[in-house]
From TrEMBL:
A GO-annotated cellular component: alpha DNA polymerase:primase complex
MF (Gene Ontology): chromatin binding; DNA replication origin binding; DNA-directed DNA polymerase activity; single-stranded DNA binding
Coiled coil region boundaries: none
DNA-directed DNA polymerase family B exonuclease domain residues: 12-248
SUPFAM superfamilies: Ribonuclease H-like (SSF53098)
GO biological process entries: lagging strand elongation; leading strand elongation; mitotic DNA replication initiation
Record-linked Pfam families: DNA_pol_B_exo1
Protein name: Putative DNA polymerase I alpha catalytic subunit
Amino acid sequence: MGEFKHIRAVMGASRSLIELFLIKKKLMGPSYLSMENFFPATDRLSHCELEFVVDSPKNIKVDDTARPSPPFTLASIQLHTQLDSKGVTNEVVAASIAVYRDVNIDSGMKTEVSECFTGIRQISSDAALPLNLEAYCQSKGLPGVKNFGNERALLTWMASTLGNLDPDIVVGHNFIGYTIDILLNRYHELNIPRWSTIGRLDIKRFPRSQNGNSNLSNEKEACIGRLVVDTYLLSGNTTRVQTTNWNLWLLRWELQVLQMAVVHLNLD
């Protein structure tokens, strides 16, 4: 073992600094923190409205005082895409952000949408929308709809809107496996400013891609600072059948289906 012949193992050597910090401070899930000797940051690292620095991790402690849960801002993101003219790359043609404010995660979420923002672009320069979409939606009481001439303008608006909203929680269906991948690739391809507002860290470099696709760990890194809820992954966990016996009556019992119709397919 070289010059360190008396060393058998180094505990925690394979863990990141943030993991060691969380374990040391016993930060188990969302909680309030008590901080001392903090001051405003001069070299900002995030998109947050307020940013502070402490000289030592010893100045950060868990606050055990009983307090009500803080209100959260939640943003639900939905993309609509189509393949480019070569049939290779997914391009964004529309994007929607539904905003829920003052959400109490302990007592359930209210159903009313606080705000809704939707951006739609022309498919091509010679294929304009058949009507003045913004004026039409405004007349119908939908002020959050915007029309854009190209994909870059649409994504620039989306990145800026996310930064201004600064949601604590981001929700989407197949968000990890699809939405982030599409956004990062299109942000990179079109050189979108403020692209990193998908998270709270002001990241300057784009995540490295592999064969044109973003690496999953880098996709998660881009979302640092926001809680991400992927309903696709959650639905997979809740509806997964616990057996490999494909008897229809057993499946009916497991899925708690009251009525079942069997469709006969002609496979000839």
